[in-house]
């Protein structure tokens, strides 16, 4: 029974990852074009100003915006057609942004830090609301580990440079435990991590939503620490310099409609869970659990948010993940006049 359960669960994870990376739209950035709220190609003569290409990952807020359809309609009314391109990871998405293959996109805090550290131009335009409960370190329910204070000599599985890696480093520092006093093992994706944790290769498993919610719903675990008070677990929105300089009104419209879609998502979390279930090929229940513990919303790149992202970057320098210190402010260029009135 246990073997069958494990096989089924790991196969599910593999299926999800394959769908995200090798779907019909292509892992290198498959695209769909739409110019109307229902996603159909618009034949309106008003679409004369060009195409705005937006990169997204399945399951994130830009995916919600795409499915909601309000941005396609808003930009169509301004003379633009939207082309949506799906990417398997934030790193690949940011590479496409850097080469002007897309105009706008969304990626994680860690993705952005590593891209900037690699010397690639980056333009933060806004942040999603913090999601601290969406990342955690968990143990099996019968584990002797009760808190972070018990981690000396234990093996912890995380993705290198991921949100759970950052959470681990912060939690260890607070507990007065040096990183070299634990055994940190890196896994490449959620399927590999879950399999290793289930087989006992990790004492502690670092993971993130929606996979965290899946683990909580299917395996008897306990959370020893999550992001609350430790990691804001933010994601960010980025644009090319060309889009910011030449078409700032497009950035304004994207951010405005993102906020509108996020507000709708907060009031319709069951519907959002069903939409994402279809997109990701996952059961609704864990997605509902994940959505219930987050608040959707776009925020300006204010000083506090920049400082939080700087703290993450500095922590990765201290851990030897980055070769040199970077300055997050160097990648924040958006003019306040571009921010729509519905974003604070």
Automatic annotation (TrEMBL):
GO terms for molecular function: ATPase-coupled transmembrane transporter activity. It is found in: Periplasm. It comes from the Bacteria. Its main location: periplasm. InterPro entries: ABC_SsuA_sub-bd, Solute-binding_3/MltF_N, SsuA/THI5. Transmembrane segments: none annotated. SUPFAM superfamilies: Periplasmic binding protein-like II. PROSITE patterns: PROKAR_LIPOPROTEIN. The keyword Secreted does not apply. The keyword Membrane does not apply. Keywords: Signal, Transport. Residues 51-268 form the Solute-binding protein family 3/N-terminal domain. GO terms for cellular component: membrane; periplasmic space. Residues 25-46 have a biased composition (Low complexity). Residues 1-18 form the signal peptide. Residues 25-51 are annotated as: Disordered. PANTHER family: ALIPHATIC SULFONATES-BINDING PROTEIN-RELATED. Belongs to the bacterial solute-binding protein SsuA/TauA family. Part of a binding-protein-dependent transport system for aliphatic sulfonates. Putative binding protein. NCBIfam families: SsuA_fam (TIGR01728). This is Putative aliphatic sulfonates-binding protein. It comes from Paenibacillus azoreducens.
């Amino acid at each position: 029974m246990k073997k069958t359960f494990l096989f089924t669960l790991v196969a599910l994870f593999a299926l999800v990852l394959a769908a995200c990376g090798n779907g019909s739209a292509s892992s290198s950035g498959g695209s769909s074009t739409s110019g109307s709220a229902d996603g159909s190609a618009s034949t309106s003569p008003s679409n004369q100003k060009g195409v705005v290409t937006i990169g997204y990952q399945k399951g994130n807020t830009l995916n919600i915006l795409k499915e909601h359809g309000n941005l396609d309609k808003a930009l169509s009314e301004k003379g633009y057609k939207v082309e949506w391109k799906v990417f398997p990871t934030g790193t690949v998405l940011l590479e496409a942004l850097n080469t002007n293959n897309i105009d706008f996109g969304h990626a994680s805090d860690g993705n952005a830090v590593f891209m900037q550290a690699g010397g690639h131009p980056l333009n933060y335009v806004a942040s999603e609301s913090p999601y601290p409960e969406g990342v955690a370190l968990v143990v099996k329910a019968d584990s002797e580990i009760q808190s972070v204070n018990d981690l000396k000599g234990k093996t912890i599985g995380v993705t290198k440079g991921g949100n759970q890696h950052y959470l681990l480093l912060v939690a260890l520092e607070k507990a007065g435990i040096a990183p070299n006093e634990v055994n940190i093992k890196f896994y490449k994706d959620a399927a590999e991590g879950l399999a290793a944790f289930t087989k006992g290769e990790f004492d502690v498993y670092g993971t993130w939503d929606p996979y965290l919610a899946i683990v909580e719903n299917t395996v008897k675990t306990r959370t020893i620490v999550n992001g609350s008070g430790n990691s804001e677990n933010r994601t960010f929105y980025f644009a090319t310099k060309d889009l910011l300089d030449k078409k700032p009104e497009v950035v304004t419209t994207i951010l405005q409609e993102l906020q509108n879609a996020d507000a709708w998502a907060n009031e319709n979390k069951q519907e959002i869970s069903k939409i994402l279930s279809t997109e990701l090929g996952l059961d609704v229940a864990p997605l509902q659990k994940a959505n219930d513990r987050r608040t959707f919303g776009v925020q300006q790149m204010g000083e506090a948010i920049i400082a939080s992202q700087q703290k993450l970057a500095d922590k990765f320098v201290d851990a030897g993940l980055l070769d040199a210190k970077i300055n997050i402010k160097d990648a924040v260029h958006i003019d306040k006049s571009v921010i729509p009135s519905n974003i604070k």
